[in-house]
Amino acid sequence: MKLYQIHAIKENKQNKNKIDFDTAWSNQFWFSNEEDALSYCKTMQQVGYFKDYDALWIIKYHFKTRKVIDNFKLVGKNDYYKYDMIYQKSLLS
């Protein structure tokens, strides 16, 4: 099963070459298809939802078992075995 996840990313203020993983994992939105993830990402950028973040990623995850998404959150164990970065956008000016 494949699911798509948007991560809103902030830079790690201690090391500019790394991201703040706490922020990345707490600001995530799950979708069952790529088109919905891209559409949501673009719409939320337009309304300023991601204005406090430095970058956006969309990652396609491949799971071993069937998954359920509830209110943009993954329900159950995160048992992915592979992932692919499909979208990256810097929000820095």
Quick description:
The protein is α+β, with helices and mostly antiparallel strands. The chain has two helices and eight strands, in the order E-E-E-H-E-H-E-E-E-E.
In percent, how much strand structure appears in the residues?
A: over 45%
Tell me the number of helical segments per DSSP (H or I, 4 or more residues long).
2
Low-confidence segments, given as residue ranges, are: none
Report the span from N to C terminus.
36 Å
Mean pLDDT: 84
The coarse silhouette is globular
Helix content: 10-25%
Biggest sheet strand order reads 4-1-5-8
- Major sheet: 4 strands, antiparallel
- Regarding quaternary structure, what we see is single chain
Q: SS-based structural class? A: alpha+beta
Radius of gyration, Cα only, in angstroms?
13 Å
Quick one: how many beta strands? 8
Question: What is the ordering of alpha helices and beta strands?
Answer: EEEHEHEEEE
Can you tell me about this structure?
The relative contact order is 0.26. The protein is of the alpha+beta class and 93 residues long. The model has no long low-confidence stretch (mean pLDDT 84). Strand 6 (68-70) and strand 7 (73-75) form a beta hairpin. Helices cover 20% and strands 48% of the residues. The longest helix is centred in the middle third of the chain and has 13 residues, at 34-46. The strands form three sheets. It has a four-stranded antiparallel beta sheet with strand order 4-1-5-8.
